[in-house]
UniProtKB/TrEMBL annotation:
This is GH26 domain-containing protein. PROSITE patterns: GH26. It comes from the Bacteria. The keyword Hydrolase applies. Keywords: Glycosidase, Hydrolase. SUPFAM superfamilies: (Trans)glycosidases. Residues 50-68 have a biased composition (Low complexity). GO terms for biological process: substituted mannan metabolic process. One of its GO terms (molecular function) is mannan endo-1,4-beta-mannosidase activity. Belongs to the glycosyl hydrolase 26 family.
């Protein structure tokens, strides 16, 4: 079943096409009529924890045990703690599971059992082996497990497939699209209708790696996504520059956009708040229907690598700016309650 909606006029700068998805409305996640869902990746292992340079009061606030009915659910304490500092509940909580890892786990069940959407990021495998049927049983088991959750799920399979680091597994754009279609066929065979399929290369891949060639087609994709960190080789780079070519490409497709894993590097120091406020302007685009902040330092090579560390935890000014973004009406389409945060 195809859900169709027009992008809201006056919700942001620029024109956007009529938005369609293959997802079943009311069962799978569909775009909000106006604005964009706000979500985050909050590591369960504390990789996005407080900075060693923060003040004692900031440290106490960042590490205080979260409270509330969801805080005690499996995997939810870091999420609830982040929400309390943000001043609102998340629309989307991201989880990650490797290709052979059983899911849903505790976090996925906790998210699905509440009032948040689950963004399940599922690792990839050798695309040719997938098409050859080597993993059909595994895929079918995962499909049944997702169906059994009984709640809407964003499924982001084999993200960043355009990166050269994954070439041995992905092989080629043609191999990737064939594998994508094979997965969808198995999910359809298992009658899984609570999934919205999120196709997600890197935003950088549109400036030379031909990320668009990995696109399986409008009939195979519900949400077009990009991972959009500024990149560790820039001293400073606005989000608008990081997503520019991706957004130009996406204009040619009648799909809602998700900007996943965007984050402001700690290397930007006192300019982090400024970066986030400019990002809020960029993301208020009528085709952008979901944004997911990457509140983690796990991509950093070591503790001194601040160009790939994105957590705002313990950074008072960056947290305040992210709270401004998250509580802007555009990014709160469900009109969830807002508190002062802290």
């Amino acid at each position: 079943m195809i859900a169709t909606m027009a992008a809201g006029c006056g919700d942001g700068a620029g024109a956007a096409p009529k938005i369609t998805t293959t997802a079943r409305a009311g069962v799978a996640p569909v775009p909000p009529d106006k604005g964009a869902y706000f979500g985050a990746w909050v590591p369960e292992d504390g990789a996005g924890g407080p900075s060693p340079s923060q003040s004692p009061s900031e440290s106490a606030s960042a590490t205080a045990s979260p409270s509330g009915k969801d805080a005690g659910k499996p995997g939810m304490a870091p999420v609830v703690g982040f929400e309390q500092r943000l001043g609102r509940q998340l629309d989307i909580v991201q989880s990650y599971r490797g290709w052979k890892t059983e899911f849903p786990g505790g976090l996925e069940k906790s998210v699905a059992g509440g009032n948040r959407y689950l963004l399940l990021t599922w690792g990839g495998a050798d695309t040719r082996e997938i098409v050859q049927g080597k993993y059909d049983d595994l895929i079918a088991r995962r499909a049944r497990a997702v169906k059994a959750l009984g709640k809407p799920v964003f499924l982001r399979w084999s993200r960043d497939m355009d990166k050269s680091s994954g070439r041995k597994r992905v092989h080629s754009a043609g191999d990737f699209t064939a594998a994508w279609k094979h997965l969808r066929e198995i999910f359809e065979r298992e009658k899984v209708d609570n999934v919205a399929w999120v196709w997600c290369p890197t935003a950088r891949g549109f400036s030379g790696a031909d990320a668009g060639s990995y696109y399986p087609g409008d009939d195979q994709v519900d949400w077009i996504c990009a991972d959009a960190e500024p990149g560790g080789d820039y001293d400073y780079r606005d989000l608008s520059e990081a997503v520019k070519l991706f957004m130009q490409w996406a204009r040619g497709h009648h799909k809602p956009i998700m900007i996943a894993e965007f984050g402001v590097p700690k290397a930007y120091g006192p300019r982090r708040a400024e970066w986030l406020r400019e990002a809020a302007k960029t993301l208020q685009d009528p085709q952008v229907k979901a944004v997911v902040y990457f509140n983690s330092d796990e991509q950093a090579a070591n503790a001194r690598d601040r160009r790939r560390a994105y957590s705002v935890t313990g950074d008072k000014h960056a947290t305040s700016a992210l709270r401004e973004l998250a509580t802007t009406p555009y990014f709160n389409p469900r009109n969830l309650p807002v508190t002062s945060g802290g």
